[in-house]
């Protein structure tokens, strides 16, 4: 059954219930409302763009929210300058990775705030190209060398 002519617009003024698949040959599914819900009530698995080699979501500005965990099988490239969190504790590569390569091209590395504690749990720290290690702390007073302390032996 064909509805409408080969050119022009065919309008359906009520809901459209399609029991089979819907094929769109024109390349676009467009809407005239500010909010569009796609498979937003019953579907628990949503397959989208299975053959896509590039997937664009959203405009160049704004926010994209993902409400569940995100599992990425390839690499992640972040073009912005920040990876931010809204929690007081952030775990990065904290479960499986036994070797962590970090900031390999960095010529300067800033770690932590001006106050606080840095904990390094490993017993060995190796600087493969280090020429100096500067640790700034208040000077420790030398041990007492008074005559009473020296002769008590």
Which features would summarize this protein structure in a list?
little secondary structure; 153 residues
What does it look like?
The chain is low in regular secondary structure and 153 residues long. It has 1 helix and no strands. The termini are far apart. The model has no long low-confidence stretch (mean pLDDT 87).
Largest sheet: none
Number of helices: 1
Percent range for helical residues? under 10%
Spans where pLDDT lies below 50 across 5 or more residues: none
Gross morphology: rod-shaped
State the total count of DSSP E strands.
0
Q: Tell me the fraction of residues in β-strands, as a range.
A: under 5%
Q: Please tell me the overall pLDDT.
A: 87
Given the helix and strand composition, which structural class is it?
A: little secondary structure
Radius of gyration: 31 Å
**Element pattern in H and E:** H
Terminal-residue CA separation: 111 Å
How would you briefly describe this protein structure?
With 153 residues, the protein is low in regular secondary structure.
């Amino acid at each position: 059954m064909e509805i409408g002519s080969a050119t022009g617009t065919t309008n359906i003024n009520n809901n459209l219930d399609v029991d089979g698949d819907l094929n769109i040959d024109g390349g676009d599914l467009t809407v005239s409302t500010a909010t569009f819900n796609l498979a937003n009530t019953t579907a628990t698995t949503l397959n989208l763009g299975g053959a896509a080699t590039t997937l664009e979501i959203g405009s160049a500005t704004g926010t994209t929210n993902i409400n569940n965990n995100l599992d990425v099988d390839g690499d992640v490239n972040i073009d912005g300058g920040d990876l931010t969190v809204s929690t007081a504790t952030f775990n990065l590569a904290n479960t499986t990775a036994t070797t962590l390569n970090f900031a390999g091209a960095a010529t300067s590395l800033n770690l932590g705030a001006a106050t606080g504690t840095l904990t390094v749990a490993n017993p060995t720290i190796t600087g493969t190209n280090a020429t100096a290690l500067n640790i700034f702390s208040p000077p420790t007073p030398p041990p007492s060398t008074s005559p009473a302390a020296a002769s008590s032996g």
